[in-house]
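The authors assume throughout that readers already know how a fold can be written as discrete tokens. What matters is that the chain and its backbone geometry are given together, residue for residue. A single example would do more here than another paragraph of explanation. For illustration, here is how one protein appears when written out as sequence plus structure tokens.
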Amino acid sequence: MQARGRLIGLGVGPGDPELITLKALRLLRESPVVAYFVAKGKKGNAFGIIEDHLVPQQTLMPLVYPVTTEVLPAPMSYEQVISDFYDAASVDVAAHLDAGRDVAVICEGDPFFYGSYMYLHDRLAERYEAQVIPGVCSMLGGASVLGAPLVYRNQSLSVLSGVLPHVDLKRRLADADAAVIMKLGRNFPKVRQVLEELGLAERALYVERATMANQKIVPLDQVDPSSSPYFSLIIVPGERWQG
């Protein structure tokens, strides 16, 4: 009986190609199949990170999202469309695994930190050998380029989604020693308003596409809410402690 291939979740870091780990780079080059998530008509950030490290004999497997941020007409729902997509992608990946080929699924940042890989992992890891290689996640890349220590001593860090309703976001931020707010994009105006209401706007730091070639750091009050991209985040560092 032919041995099955391994499913490898490969974190490739937040954008700077030099932030990929040595282990991720080795497994990337050794994998006969390299799968990557990508929006229609685009190359994808994760693929751009690893493109120069690929070898000619590898099979590339783009997993093209059917939707990203667009509004779908009723009765279609984003949740159902994207769930069906992950089901189909899992079947395609499993075909390679059943044929004995390892599949490296590359993931920007870390596979288990808002990474699309996790949805394949949930569907396949109970049936196939799975290995996950951690990567530098976007919030750590963001803290580094902003020069902002996240938490001191006994402080706790809250990681929040900008998609949260206004009331929930405000409640969680009010209780946080320090926070990272992800998934901004069209949610930016709401997030900035909450920060202003809590008196946190002056402490808050904003960065777009941290560590990427087109990285942009902008004071929070100067951000154009109509142009804040999905790959942006806000850090509210913990209060400084002079140790």
About this structure: The chain has a mean pLDDT of 94. Strands lie at 7-11, 33-38, 59-64, 103-107, 130-133, 157-161, 178-182, 205-208, 216-218, 232-236. Residues 7-136 form a domain with the Cobalt-precorrin-4 Transmethylase; domain 1 fold (CATH 3.40.1010.10). The CA atoms of residues 209 and 237 lie 19 Å apart.
